[in-house]
Amino acid sequence: MVHDRNAVVREVPEYGRHKGYWKRFMIRHRDAVMAAVILMPMLAFWLLLSGFPTVFGFMLGFFRWVGLADSPKFIGFDNFIRFFKDPIYTQSLWRSIWLGGLVTSITLLAGFGAALLMNLPLWGKGIYRSIWYIPAVTSTVATTQIFNLFLDTNNGVINNVLVSLGKEPIVWQYSVGWGIFWIVVYSAWKGVGGAALLWLAGLQSVDHSLYEAAEIDGAGRFGKLWNVTLPGLKPIATYVVITSLIGAIQIYEQVLFITNGGPYGQTEVLVFRIYRDGFWDFNLGMAGASSLIMAIIVIVITVFYYGWSTSSDRRTTIPLKPLRKEK
Amino acid sequence: MRSSNARARSFKPLHLFGHVVLLTVGIVLMYPLVFMFLAGFFTKQEFASTVLGIFPIPEEPTLRNFISLFQTTGDADALMYFRNSLFRTAYMTVASVLTSFLGGYVFARLRFKGREQLFLLLLATQMIPTTIAIIPTYLEFARFPFMGGNNVFTGGTGILDTWWVYLIGGPAINIMGTFLVKQSLDKVPIELDEAAKMDGAGTTRLLFQILFPLQLPIIAFIAITSGLGTWNDFIVPFFYTNSDTLQTLPSAITRLSSVGNSPGAVVNYPLIITLSLGVTLPALLIFFFLQKYIVQGLANTGIKG
């Protein structure tokens, strides 16, 4: 009996009895403990820097909050209703979309052409590749200032050249069309090299035996391009197109530095509008509502892409974000 | 290989076309940077009096602008901006390499409940555009408890306009980097880990002496991208700091540009060009020496997945 009772007591964990409890716990859950030790601090800082501000930003959309000294007031969906009623916002949203589409198509088409040429066995093609990619590593702030120097009204390079050719100088800053034009030119300048590199990697991943097979079947250069290269590029193409599009509809730095939204806010894109609402007009509620709408658009595009690409090809299950920005 | 050599040697009109197009457009693409470089040789006076042509060649070229990058001149403390940029970039590069590597290790090698779900959740957050967090982050920094004269939430300026703005981002996990390291570690057989443990290597030794060198290409890519990203970033210093002693090169340029000035003010282009050279030339140097990793890494992120 006595022996039995001791045995029962032993199985009930009591303080001070099981000195090895934590040690054994550590050994049994070694991986989980280590993962927690490594991940917890990194995730905590990530939540502080990205998670919380993002959620906070979405919540701002449901409040009326004008000026930092003001106290926020819950107003439900009023900001969103205003977004779709006020032409300032609907126009900037529309401009984001078509400007993004324009920039994406120009960059990708030019990049594709360049990639086709870089894929030829040319002497020094590595040098071409580097030169084309260089704009992508430069700072947007610095290079847009050089573009501004080209476009300066008083001593701008382009106007000086126009004058020396006997033409009238153009005040670029007064014209919406020219503003958009230079934003597109800048974006293409910066993006075309990266697009060419991605396409080139895609071209090189196409199975070479298919080309040989096509050659045996008597296909010419264009036949091979049409029947082998393009179908082979399809999975990569969806990835390249979607990431570029997502990046391009969020363009705002070049807008900020080249036109600053002018003339009269007619080159404003949505993300620029968010910046303007937040830092100039201190209309934090509208900034939050606009960000939520932007995020929803991006998420919808991404989800469509995922659905489409996983149903057609499983090779490109990759997260959708160009690896450039670092906070 | 032989056939491609033979092809390269024989003359083909298509190849000539390729050379002409790639070279011409390449020169056009380089033009703004060439212009920046040439404009860097002007003295301030000459720049103001010259009618800028397509290729601005100064009559009395000077190296003063390049030298003043490492000096405190009357116009601006370029050296200080340079140092701030350099410090911030070095810190963020080391931090994001560490967080990506450790994060990648955790998700590739350690087994724990909810690992896949957590990883997918983190990847999903990458869809959300980062620009939308700028304003909430500003508010969060301003209300940081017990900092900058704050009581629990308000009162002072929080950590705005302090070094904490730059430091706080470091330990946060770099999700894209984590993804890349995990992808790359998944290809390393786990037997390697086991063999190392058999030979008596601890986890730290396994991580930093065995796995880290193996991941060097992808680590280099993460370091370059996050380093260049931080080096070129104007958002954090421009929006969250105000004092001159905290500015980096990009934010100093932003403040001099029309964005930071009142509308209609005369923009100090010679100084902007000097600082722009300070941002651009180091980035180009890094690119030239490490472009192999960029090309490889881009191909990896984009295609092999």
UniProtKB/TrEMBL annotation, chain A:
It comes from Paenibacillus roseus. PANTHER family: ABC TRANSPORTER PERMEASE PROTEIN (PTHR30193), INNER MEMBRANE ABC TRANSPORTER PERMEASE PROTEIN YCJO (PTHR30193:SF37). InterPro entries: ABC_transporter_permease, MetI-like, MetI-like_sf. It holds the Pfam family BPD_transp_1. It is a multi-pass membrane protein. This is Sugar ABC transporter permease. CDD domains: TM_PBP2. The chain crosses the membrane at residues 32-63, 97-118, 130-151, 171-189, 282-308. One of its GO terms (biological process) is transmembrane transport. Keywords: Cell membrane, Membrane, Transmembrane, Transmembrane helix, Transport. One of its GO terms (cellular component) is plasma membrane. It is found in: Cell membrane. SUPFAM superfamilies: MetI-like (SSF161098). Gene3D superfamilies: MetI-like (1.10.3720.10). Belongs to the binding-protein-dependent transport system permease family. Residues 93-305 form the ABC transmembrane type-1 domain.
From TrEMBL, chain B:
It is a multi-pass membrane protein. SUPFAM superfamilies: MetI-like (SSF161098). Keywords: Cell membrane, Membrane, Transmembrane, Transmembrane helix, Transport. InterPro entries: MetI-like, MetI-like_sf. GO terms for cellular component: plasma membrane. Its main location: membrane. One of its GO terms (biological process) is transmembrane transport. Gene3D superfamilies: MetI-like. It is found in: Cell membrane. The chain crosses the membrane at residues 20-42, 89-107, 119-139, 163-181, 206-228, 269-290. The keyword Membrane applies. It comes from the Bacteria. Residues 82-290 form the ABC transmembrane type-1 domain. Belongs to the binding-protein-dependent transport system permease family. This is Carbohydrate ABC transporter permease. The lineage of its organism: Bacteria, Bacillati, Bacillota, Bacilli, Bacillales.
